[in-house]
Amino acid sequence: MPVSIDYTGKIVFITGGGRGIGLAITAAFAKAGATVIVTYTSKDPKDVVKKISDEHGVPIHVYYCPGEDTARVNEVIELASKEVGEVDVVVPNAGVSLWRETVDMSDSELDWIMKTNLYAPITLCRGFVRHWLGMGAAVKTEADPGKPTGKANLNKRILVVSSISGVVNMRPQRQMAYNVSKAGLTMACKSLAGEWAKYGVTINSISPGYVATDMIKDPPPGEGATWPKVWMRDTPVDRFAEASEIGQMVVLMCSQESSTFMTGHDLIIDGGFTTY
Ligand SMILES: NC(=O)c1ccc[n+]([C@@H]2O[C@H](COP(=O)([O-])OP(=O)(O)OC[C@H]3O[C@@H](n4cnc5c(N)ncnc54)[C@H](OP(=O)(O)O)[C@@H]3O)[C@@H](O)[C@H]2O)c1
Questions:
Q1: What CATH number corresponds to the domain at position 59?
Q2: Which long-range contacts does 194-199 make (Cβ < 8 Å, 24+ apart)?
Q3: How far is the CA of 244 from the centre of ligand 1 (A)?
Q4: Which residue of 65, 120, 192, 209 has the lowest C-beta tally within 10 Å?
Q5: Domain containing 259: what range?
Q6: What InterPro entries does UniProt report for this protein, alphabetically (predicted)?
Q7: pLDDT tens, residue by residue, 181-219
Q8: Total structural domains within the chain
Q9: 36 - beta bridge partners?
Q10: Assigned domain for 1 exists
Q11: Taking all residues of the chain, what is their mean pLDDT, rounded to a whole number?
Q12: How much distance in Å is there from the Cα of 28 to the middle of ligand 1?
């Protein structure tokens, strides 16, 4: 039997889906027939996603949604589910990096990395699972957050974009906060896989190596000029990934037919970086 990667009739929600790896994930799902919901914070990607939408003949909807604004995140979950339809696949992809020696780092920088890379994906996933369970995305009060109904067979997929920075200490740049945020995120997925299996929700992560996007394109002048050479030297395939190579893997990993028994897994996609 051929493995189906036909997402016709499925709805996929991708944070930061208008740029970089997120845009490649958007394009890969659109190519596979999915309706896509994309969030952004800095620049409305409606023009770029319209091209993808026209090319593949699928709708792509765009919502403004800063990941650290939990109230807005919960609002978007409810709004998009109503306006577009019930989401089948969630891809928390948005993330930020910071190259900084820890002794030079401010509290607000540390907060920014943790809130964007670690707390935001967790609150987004919690909001969706609560919504799917009929509890409402938002936790109403800490004293009475509401009660799930017990077992459920939701058949939903969550695929989180983490990083090999959560597995190994990248060099020569210093990015302790980013590394810690991604290590925490990968572990959050494993923990949530255990919690949400009873609801029929699988949650996995991917850990890419270096991918040619805005995130790595501007090392600081001076010492940073040599970094890309080092990054490439340490990557056995001797190049950075194209974002499309990541997008395609995400589509494969989220198939509702073929990925039913995979949960709590982290897939490293790094051109061999972590084999050294
Ligand atoms: N590039 C790499 O080498 C690499 C390697 C491993 C893992 N990753 C991970 O892959 C993911 C995507 O990175 P990328 O390389 O595509 O980076 P990018 O080109 O810099 O894009 C970052 C994305 O995150 C969104 N974003 C940033 N801050 C946000 C916030 N506060 N709330 C909501 N969205 C926010 C951006 O939205 P706007 O467009 O609205 O600004 C943008 O879509 C990140 O989680 C990153 O850590 C990247």
A1: 3.40.50.720
A2: 194/264, 196/129, 197/263, 198/150, 198/151, 198/152, 199/129, 199/132, 199/133, 199/148, 199/151, 199/152, 199/153, 199/154, 199/156
A3: 14
A4: 192
A5: 11-270
A6: NAD(P)-bd_dom_sf (IPR036291), SDR_fam (IPR002347)
A7: 999 999 999 999 999 999 999 999 999 999 999 999 999
A8: 1
A9: 12, 60
A10: no
A11: 96
A12: 17
